[in-house]
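Exam prep: given the inputs below (a chain plus zinc ion), describe the expected output before reading on.
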Amino acid sequence: MRIDLHTHSTASDGTDSPAELVAAAGAAELDVVAVTDHDTTAGWSEAVAARPSGVALVRGMEMSCTGRGDDGFPVAVHLLAYLFDPSHDAFAAERERLREERVWRILEMAARMSAAGLPVDGERIVDEAGPSVGRPHLARALIDAGIVPSIDAAFAGPLSRTSPYFVDKHDTRLSRAVDLVVASGGVAVVAHPRARARGRLLAVAEIRELAERGLGGVEVFHPDHTAADVDMLVRLARELDLVTTGSSDYHGTNKSVRLGDFTTPPDQFAAIEAAATGVPVVR
Ligand SMILES: [Zn+2]
Ligand SMILES: [Zn+2]
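Solution:
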């Protein structure tokens, strides 16, 4: 069984449409794939319709959250939400708020760039980006305008936190996000908790607190984790009785990782499926 529980489509910042993504999962000989776009379920229906037989589909999402950093200050954290009911009122309202935050943030960053003479059109980026616009879409516009050579260069330069163009968005408090996922029948899994390249780390103490309030698991096997990170997270998950997942975090050609490069053990996936009551795995 090859199980990849974290991938992105054009519904957020991947380059495969949801239909192409599930087809690619079949070609990569995955038995299970989860579609987990940033802050949106917009790719779900297309993925369900295009799913090849033999590939089980997990409907999910990767939420942008704010947690407590290991230095005590707020830190950006991602939370994977699996198999939740998309019609749950409070959770749907929070997704809508996140969507508005994303649009506002990109328009604001593009306006600052325009004011400084960079030829980027925020309205156009938002129109063309689909349901979950983000900094990668602004990065593409900067590449097209010849301002930076690559997505990495964009994130290290004009899109970085220390850039004069940077605008923060107000993400969901991590504890509230876990509550919303649980309330809507889903399973919440902290994404890549040790991915240092993304900045500071989530405090381990907060993972312990979240485990008490219904967190289901931690993503352990991930391209941004070292062997020492994997060891540490496996021990922590065992101690807290959390599921351990593994995933490629595939983004199509926006990142080099391939589908199925990192996978989830079948017994861990079975535990997620057994715990969820929102929507079923599509088989
Ligand atoms: Zn992430
Ligand atoms: Zn991701």
